[in-house]
Specification:
With 135 residues, the protein is mainly beta. It has no helices and eleven strands. It has one domain: Sandwich (Immunoglobulin-like). It is 0% helix and 33% strand.
């Protein structure tokens, strides 16, 4: 899908009795997509208290950001497996979580990371149009 694009769909059901055409419905994808800023790809030796940040374009038709979901893959203390893990504002969970905030960064304390471990992160934002994709 393309950012800022309205999509339409309609269901048409056909069987031996005939055809029924449903109501056309539409939705618009957000123009407010985050771009990851820090830490950048393949960064090594970062501080254990890490600030994840992303700029946010609040000039779209939907208005400003109302929430974000930070997703991390890798081993995190207190959890088995490599995730994905979602930041709740106070810890990691295996369930997709939205933090209600217009913040464009979050600092996660060192207690929530394992030393000498590789992590992959992405963020999605919400606005009046709903959830954007993870970037």
């Amino acid at each position: 899908m393309t950012a800022g694009t309205r999509y339409y769909n309609r269901v048409v059901a056909t069987n031996t009795i005939g055809t029924t055409t449903g109501k056309a419905v539409s939705f618009e994808t957000s123009t407010n997509l985050p771009t990851l800023v820090a830490p950048s790809d393949n960064t090594t030796g970062i501080q254990m208290d890490t600030t994840f940040s992303w700029p946010y374009n609040s000039g779209g038709a939907a208005g400003g950001q109302t929430g974000y979901s930070l997703k991390l893959s890798g081993n995190v203390p207190g959890h088995s497996g490599t995730g994905p893990w979602y930041w709740t504002g106070s810890g990691w969970t295996a369930t997709q979580t939205w933090v209600a905030s217009a913040a464009q960064s979050v600092t996660i304390p060192q207690a929530f990371f394992s030393p000498n471990t590789s992590y992959t992160w992405s963020v999605a934002t919400q606005d009046a149009n709903g959830q954007g994709p993870y970037a």
